[in-house]
Structures are given as C-alpha cells and as structure tokens.
Amino acid sequence: LILSNAEFGKVVTRFPPEASGFIHIGHAKAALVDRMLADKYGGKMVFRFDDTNPDKEKHEFEESILEDLAVLGVTWEVGPTYSSDYMDIYIEKAELMLKEGTAYCDTTDRETMQKQRWDGIASACRENSFDENTRLWNEMRSATDLGRTACLRAKISIDNPNKAMRDPVLFRVNTNPHARQGRKYNIYPTYDFCCPIIDSVEGVTHALRTNEYHDRNAQYDWIIDALKMRKPNLEDFSRLNMEYAVMSKRKLTQLVNDKVVDGWNDPRFPTIRALVRRGLKIEALREFVKVQGMSKAVNFMEWSKLWNFNVQVLDPSVPRFTVVSDDLKVTCTVVGATTQADAEELKKAKHMKNADLGEKTYYRHSSFFLDAEDVALIKDGDEVTLMSWGNAFIKNIVKNDKDMPVSADIELNPTGDVRSTKYKLTWVPNLPSKTVPVVCNEYDHLLTKKKPDPEEPIDGLIAPVTKFTQNCVGEAAMHDLKQGDYMQLERRGYYIVDSVNPLTLIAIPDGKDKVNHLCAKYQYLKTVPSAAPPTLADKKAAAAPKGTKADENVSLEEKRAAKAAKKAAQAKPAA
After folding, report:
1. What does the alpha-carbon distance between residue 461 and residue 277 come to, in Å, rounded to a whole number?
2. According to the model, what pLDDT value does residue 290 have?
3. Strand 344-349 relative to strand 405-413: parallel, antiparallel, unpaired?
C-alpha cells in the first residue's frame, strides 16, 4: 500500500459510498484501503455519502452502511459529510463555466446525444450564445417543460479518442424529492462533476478509485483545471471481482426481490453483513485486502483465498465440539456394559492447544451414536478409535433397506493402540438430557458460472440448489452457545451460531474443494452422482497405481473420502 506524492501527516483520503444498497466486499476493500493508507501516512480519512441522485438515496441504506463500517472497524476523522450539502457550490461552479464558455446547455434528446458522442459529431447546441445558455439553465433550474428537455454539458471535445472526454453531461433535471434536501433543488450534478469539486473543497489529497474509472480520470482533472481549484492526486486500484458472485447492486436487488435469497444478509451474498453472518472474521478480510494492495490487475479473486485467511484466524482460537447426524445415525451398544441410568461425567479441554478456552464436560454411556457415513466405511469386526474414549471393535452391524447402517455392537479395547487404527470416529451419548438438537446449514455458490460477464443476465446462471440442511445431535457442552459464537465441529469443519432455540449453525467455508462425507451437501450429491466432484484422493489414485509412492502419500482421510464418494456415485437417488 503506497501512495505517490504523499507527505506524512498531510494525507487525506476519502470513502464516498452511494446510499443505494448494502455495502459488499468490493466496497469493503475500498473502505479498508482508504483507512489503511490514511493510517500509514499519519493522515485523515473523510467519510462522505455520495447522495446527489434522488432516485437512489435511501435513509435506511445510510444506517446500514454506518453499521457495516462499524463491523469492519473503519473509522474516520471527518464526516459523515453529504455530497448534496454542497449543491449551492456545484450550481455556482456550473454558472461560472457557462460564463467562461466551458459549458453549454443542450436540448438534444438522449438517444441522439449518445449517437453523436459515439460518432464524434457536435451538438447543434454546442455554439449557443451565453444568453441562450443562461436562458436554458434558468429553465432547467425551474424544471419547466423546456428545462426538462435540457442538460448541462462540459465543452471539452467532440472527437477525443477517450469518449469520456466528449462533452460529458454535468447537470440534469430531477424533480423527485431528495432524502436529505427534499424539493429544494430541481437539478442535480452527475457524479463526475461533483466528485472533483467536493474532493477539492474537503481537502482530499489522494482520491482512490477503482480502475473502472480510469478513462474518466482525464475528465476529473479537466474539471479541476477549468474551475482553477486545488487538484487532488488520483490513484487507481483494481476493482474486486469474486468468482461465482454477483457484485452489481441492481442484480443483488433482483435476487432479493425475486426471493432467490432470504435477504441482504443471506450467507450466499457478498455483502458484509452476509459474510459476517457466514463466519468471516474481519481480521481475515483485512489480510485479504492487504495482500491485494493497490494492484491494478483486473481479475476474479477466488473465495478460497479469503476463507483460507479466515481458517488461519479461527483454528487457534475457537473451541471444539462434537455432533452426529440425527438423520443418519447408528445406535451403538457397548457389549457387556451394565444398564445404567447415569452417564460417566468427564472433563476435557475445549481446544487441545489453547488452554485459555477452558474445559468442557462430556459424557460416556453404554449407548451412543456414530455417523452412519462413518460406519458405512467399516467392515464388521474392524477396530476403530472412539475419540476421547479409546479403541473398540465394531461388530454386528445392522443395515436398513437402503444399505445404510442403523445399529451396531461395540466391544471396548482399553489396551488398544490408537496409532494402529485407520478410523478415528466422533460420537455423542444416546442420552436426551446430555445432548442438544442442532441444525447445520451449509451454503454453496449462487451462480454456476465462475466468471460471469457483468452485462450477462443472471437468470440462467443461478444454481438449482445452494442450501443444504442436516439435523444433528450435539454434545451437552453446546447448551451454552450464543448467537455469533464460533467453533469447530470435530471432523466436520468450522461453524458459527446463527440462532438458538433451536441451535442453528452455519458452516464456514475452509477454502477447500473437497466435500466432507459427513456434511449435508454430500448427501445431496449422492442423489446427483454426476454432480459429485472428484476428491484429491481420486486425482492421486488416478495418477498413480496402487503400491506406488504417490499412492502411499494419500492420507487416510483422503482415502476415506474417496471411498465414500465412490459409494455415493453408485447409490441410487432417494425415493
């Protein structure tokens, strides 16, 4: 993160969102970059609402932006200011340009004007006299029938190779009530006109913009020069595009209105409140933005990179808990155990490498549950390790008519070596008073296309199924979890508490493509075999025959996932 022409202690950046929607990860990048650079150079940041379009501004979006910036930890020294509060200055500057002959009023219809600009043809109004321009300007300010047909244009060029410099529009008539100014004004400036003026007035030294504005930088400088105002430094950086994601406010609004998602905080959305709800830590987002810096390279970023940063934050700092699928569980009975009403109460660390997280109480009992997808990988008589218990032999496995195990006998082997077993399994006791009902929700990409064209309609790109739900049985220690708590469900992944009563969790992506055989999405893929992606183990197995060094490097977890995936692909769709 480096600025040109920066003097320590005198840098002023600005973040000017339009209050027309909830801010998404792209806006967050801009806000964080502005804040980070102001901090780096011992300067200030201006926070401004760009609110000169009465058709788009809404007070509720202003409130949401303030809330989201607080979540991001973005603060400012100046503001919030409002672009619309400078309306009298914009009008004064426009009238100065009319007087000096650097602007004119044009009554050409919009379609013809667009064609003339494209073809490099001058408008018939370009050579209007000062008196005619003044007359039309006053008609615009009064919003008369004639005034509504006119706009104010800069007199720059008719055939500049940079089409942004071909006499751009500076002011238009708009009589809709403004959220802040009411009906005080009938005309409003374009963003390209008000932006350089307000940046100069508010003391901004470095105006940071995404490089989609690059062709309009010359226009920014021209306006500043024409008005003889102090010129801020313009700095470009790449716009943040994310794979499989919609970043357009218009298209996001369409998805909300069409009820494709549950709202602006739907975990499948790229909005800040959606990402935080899905479990994104702000520390991870800041690191993600730092790595990109002020790069001008235009590309699509992978979500996996962001979630990888997130895992690095979560892994050392969140407690571990255990659940078993309530939809697909195996009831296990310990052979030889005496029937007992009470469970054996024990203690263990919530995180084996972080004692600061404290301990939790867990319970052993002669009857307990295992995941059916785990037991499906085991042969009758196999020895396994029951995590936080010890080794055991699984015998007398009983399956249902769908060939899924539903019950088994357990013969404990206290002297067994945990290092000798292939499978380390999680379990919960079969005790309603010592367990918690848990709902686990998983979300996938909304779009089927990795790099959607910004101009492409999204209707044909929406994935048919993007939410997967699994009912689970959780251990007793999960009773005290609160909304917003983070955790790792052992052998499943990271989760965040979305709500309580019932306890509902959202799976936090870990940046890996592999589908965990215990998750809800895996069950869905079993009904759509062609949709099941090849696991890393599949790829390694395909590249190396059995017994080779490459085959030996495949982990037990990968082999297990490959075996489960193969079984899933062979399974018939559920009735």
Report:
1. 24
2. 87
3. unpaired
* pLDDT at res. 240: 85
- Say if residues 11 and 34 touch (Cβ distance below 8 Å): no
E strand or H helix at 443:
strand 435-443
Is 18 a known active-site residue? yes
Is 339's pLDDT higher than 90? no
Among 288, 307, 275, 272, residue whose Cα is nearest residue 72 = 272
State how far the Cα of 86 lies from the Cα of 194, in Å rounded to an integer. Answer: 9
In whole angstroms, give the CA distance from residue 25 to residue 81: 22
The type of residue at 451 is: K
Partners of residue 13 on adjacent β-strands: 45
Do 270 and 246 form a contact (C-beta atoms < 8 A)?
yes
* Gap between the Cα atoms of 333 and 369, Å rounded: 9
Q: Is 249 a catalytic residue?
A: yes
The tens digit of pLDDT for each residue in 501-523 reads: 999 999 999 988 889 999 999 88
| Helix, strand and coil percent figures for the chain, each rounded to 5 | 35, 25, 40
d(C-alpha 34, C-alpha 10), whole Å: 14
DSSP codes of every residue in 145-200 = TTGGG-EEEE-S-SS-SSGGGSS-EEEEE--SPBTTTBTS-SEEE-HHHHHHHHHH
d(CA 113, CA 235): 31
Are 385 and 425 contacting, i.e. CB atoms less than 8 angstroms apart?
Answer: yes
Flag the least confident range among 63-77, 385-399, 543-557.
543-557
Is residue 560 part of the annotated active site? The answer reads: no
**Other CB atoms within 10 A of residue 202 CB:** 18
Q: How far apart are CA 169 and CA 104, in angstroms?
A: 10
Residue of 48, 180, 249, 526 marked catalytic: 249
pLDDT > 70 in the chain, percent? 91
As to burial, measured by CB atoms within 10 angstroms (0-12 exposed, 13-18 middle, 19+ buried), residue 304 is middle
Name the catalytic one among 48, 93, 180, 239: 239
For residues 388 and 348, the answer to whether their CB atoms sit within 8 Å is yes
Reference 225, options 98, 97, 121, 350; nearest CA is 97
The encoded tokens of residue 345 equal 């109460």
Dmax (CA) for the chain in angstroms is 105
Tens of pLDDT, residue by residue over 349-375, are: 999 999 999 999 999 999 999 999 999
pTM recorded for the entire structure: 0.84
The rounded distance, in Å, linking the Cα atoms of 416 and 300 is 51
How far CA 77 is from CA of 12, 45, 311, 346, 489, in Å, comes to 10, 6, 33, 53, 42
How open is the CA angle 331-422-420, to the nearest 5 degrees? 115
DSSP output for 283-342: HHHHHHHHHHTT-----EEPHHHHHHHHHHHHTTTS-EE-EEESSSEEEEEETTPPP-SS
